[in-house]
Amino acid sequence: MGKKFVIVILGGLGDLARSKLYPVLYNLYKNFKLLNCSKIISTGRRQNIGQNEFIEILKMSVNNDEPKFFSLFDFVTLNLDKPEDYRGLRDVLSKYKEEEFIFYLATPPLTFESTIKNLGLSLKELPNKRKIVIEKPFGYDLESAKNLNNTISEFFKEEEIYRIDHFLGKETVQNIFGLRFSNIIFEGIWNRNFIDHIQISALEDIGVEGRLGYYDKVGALRDMIQNHLIQILTIIAMEPPCCIDEKMVRDEKFKVLKSVREISYKEVPMYAVRGQYEGYLKEGNLSESFTETYAAVKFYVDNLRWEGVPFYLRTGKKLKRKETSVIIVFKKIPGLFSKLLDCMPQEDIIGFKISPENKIILSFQLRPLGGSLLSCPIPTSMEWSGSNIEAYETLFTDIIEGDQTLFIREDEIEKSWEIVQPILDFWKDHPEVSIYPSGSYGPKEAEEFIKRDGREWKNL
């Protein structure tokens, strides 16, 4: 029999809770993974919400009417800015003597520090074990990330802290790990001797979609590259851990971050470009904004495996297509073989499509059907498709079970901010941003950026 627990969702009336957390909890309930859950307490500041009104919100969130599931929930009014409200929450929690508490901060990022302090101070008298789950963005820059880490470490131990990056819960991202380390034919060529470069992309065909208040303060680099895409980079580039252990896996990821070549302030234009889609100002009724809605960055991992192999990371909004992917591009065949075939075949690739589909694609070259022995080969692909299990469901299960492998450690957070900080500083001092047409693949500077290296952006 597992240990009993209570889940506390702070910000329980917000979009994250309603669109993601409640449906995920309902799936866990249906799959018998909440058998040890004594209670789910949701908090919100609205005074006019009673238990019945809250249940109606739950029904709309999970699109179902399941009385036993709803009976797990209690709603507690809590204003994040009022310490006395936390004392009320403490009184509710004090009824649970043996349970472990899981606190999920589904709240605006600006409230993280004060919420953590109020929680920590109000819980001092309770002996229960506890965990705290923090959404991104974890900080706004290196300094704020360090401050947030210092605040949370006052009240919670590192083994109690779950800094969530939902990209790591995605099936295809986890299959990068699986494909590499369970297949000698791939691990054997996963290095600078065979790989030319790697592209990690998170492209969206929509704009800010009602998130302007948040997005205009953040921008594409902070919103996607500093966390999601750099985390994927660590999964691709890490060395095999000595064993499947959460500490060892995260140690290897941190070694990658420590090996990322520093970009100096003056070098930023050679390593990063940005843009803003046409109509962004009008969409937000803004007179002026230099917030980037597109960013592309080139990183190098300076170690024996990856020396000289560029990692291109790009993300953007209002682009031609929606696609989150990793593309491993292998080197071209030697010139002797191209002369033999009287052509230059395309590069082989391994593609990991993370969204909207969950796919792994192996693209290689074969002679055309019916062609001669020396016909120029044409691209041929093999695909694997998997189910799209909700990433939050995977991560929530890990939180309950106490597995931190897919969560970000304190040193990882600070190192990833350290990596992008020179870019943030340069862009702050040089605010000009290129405008690109909606429905394009981004600013022309991004195309020139990769073409300077003799390469081009690829899509799956």
Descriptive keywords:
460 residues; alpha/beta; Rossmann fold; Dihydrodipicolinate Reductase, domain 2; 2 domains; 6-stranded parallel beta sheet; 16 helices; 38% helix
Summarize the SSE layout with pairings:
Layout (H helix, E strand, L loop, with lengths): L4 E6 L4 H16 L6 E8 L6 H12 L4 H4 L2 E5 L5 H11 L6 E6 L6 H11 L7 E5 L7 H14 L5 E3 L7 H11 L2 H4 L7 E9 L8 H26 L8 H14 L8 H4 E6 L2 H4 L10 E7 L9 E7 L6 E8 L4 H7 L7 E7 L3 E8 L11 E8 L5 H11 L8 H20 L4 E3 L7 H8 L9
Parallel strand pairs: 1-2, 1-4, 2-3, 4-5, 5-6, 7-10, 8-15
Antiparallel strand pairs: 7-11, 8-9, 9-10, 11-12, 12-13, 13-14
Can you walk through the features of this model?
It is a single chain. With 460 residues, the chain is α/β, with parallel strands linked by helices. It has two domains: 5-135, NAD(P)-binding Rossmann-like Domain (Rossmann fold, 3-Layer(aba) Sandwich); 168-451, Dihydrodipicolinate Reductase, domain 2 (2-Layer Sandwich). The protein is built from 16 helices and 15 strands. The strands form two sheets. A nine-stranded mixed beta sheet has the order 14-13-12-11-7-10-9-8-15, sandwiched between helices. A six-stranded parallel beta sheet has the order 3-2-1-4-5-6. Strand 4, helix 5 and strand 5 form a beta-alpha-beta unit. The longest helix has 26 residues, at 212-237. It is globular.
